[in-house]
Design a protein that fits this description.
six-stranded mixed beta sheet; 2 domains; alpha/beta; Rossmann fold; 11 helices; binds adenosine-5'-triphosphate; hydrolase activity; hydrolase; 271 residues
Length: 271
């Protein structure tokens, strides 16, 4: 089943400049979906429609086959958690602990359960030592961990993360990758925007390509990397492993290796 469908959606921040132009695509339930495209392509603008922050101006959005009208748009946040690209847009409380509790409190989760979730997600993110700190005084990476914990604490079944890996150190990236994996194992739908094509290769099942406010299609990663026309039009680059392997693979011996583990196996077999 599709969790979201966009039908001919257009959107502009001002009347004279369309940002999303007649966009149609679907996002499947329980899948790991990446939305990719160059800076300014319109990815964040799409995400803000997915959790009801923005109302459609033209076209229709369907959430689990139900048209998103005024009423459903207001309820979407209970199903769809979103981690913004810039944590400063999201952190509002005076302590980390209050910030993580904010979402579930808004959703009328019982106090005891809220405390249980705060404890659980600070442990998962490894930020127990920050609990009493003021979020505004943390580093970018620490703030990001707090916002992720806050959205996890809402326990929605759709998770959206705008550039989850940006500016994280290698350890932070690993932790983020394992959280995304955990969400997938729990059967959640996870949607991310990213510029990191190696991450797309390693993680994504479906990739939606956006270029100048238009959708160039939905692909599986390997399929996309073998479409130089789409890659070029959307200003995307191959993931480093695919770039490296492309010269020696030359279409021989099965599928093009795009992941690190695949490349290792391929090299051990054929070189
Ligand atoms: N609040 C706003 N007011 C006016 N224009 C905006 C606003 N937010 C975004 N835009 C414009 O909309 C376009 C798409 O922006 P958006 O943030 O959706 O792109 P993006 O694909 O997420 O980019 P990036 O990869 O840089 O995050 C850009 O031209 C941007 O300047």
């Amino acid at each position: 089943m599709d969790v979201f469908q966009f039908h001919n959606v257009s959107y502009g921040y001002t009347k004279d400049k369309p940002i999303l132009r007649d966009i149609s695509f679907s996002i499947r339930e329980g899948r790991k979906t990446a939305i990719v495209g160059a800076n300014g392509a319109g990815k964040s603008t799409i995400l803000f429609h997915l959790n009801g922050l923005y109302a459609t101006q033209q076209g229709d959005i369907f959430f689990r086959n139900q048209k998103v009208d005024k009423k459903l748009r207001k309820e979407l946040y209970q199903h769809v958690g979103i981690v913004f690209q810039d944590p400063d847009d999201q952190l509002i409380s005076l302590t980390v602990s209050e910030d993580i509790a904010f979402g579930p409190v808004q959703m009328d989760v019982a106090a005891e359960e809220v405390q249980g979730r705060v404890d659980k997600y600070i442990k998962l993110l490894g930020i127990e030592h920050l609990l009493a700190d003021n979020p505004s005084e943390l580093s970018y990476g620490q703030k990001k961990h707090v916002t992720v914990a806050g959205v996890l604490a809402m326990e929605t079944d759709v998770f959206i993360l705008d550039e989850p890996m940006a500016f994280l150190d290698p350890f932070g990236k690993e932790r983020m990758a394992s959280i995304l994996q955990l969400l997938q194992e729990q059967g959640k739908t996870v949607i991310v925007t990213t510029h990191d094509m190696q991450f797309v290769a390693e993680w994504a099942e479906d990739v939606i390509v956006i270029h100048q406010g238009q959708c160039l299609g939905s692909f599986q990663p390997r399929e996309l990397f073998q479409r130089p026309d789409i890659m070029k039009e959307a200003n995307l680059t191959l993931p480093p492993i695919a770039e490296l392997m492309n010269d020696i693979w030359k279409g021989n011996h099965g599928e093009m290796p795009i992941r690190i583990e695949e490349a290792k196996k391929w090299l051990a077999t054929y070189m």
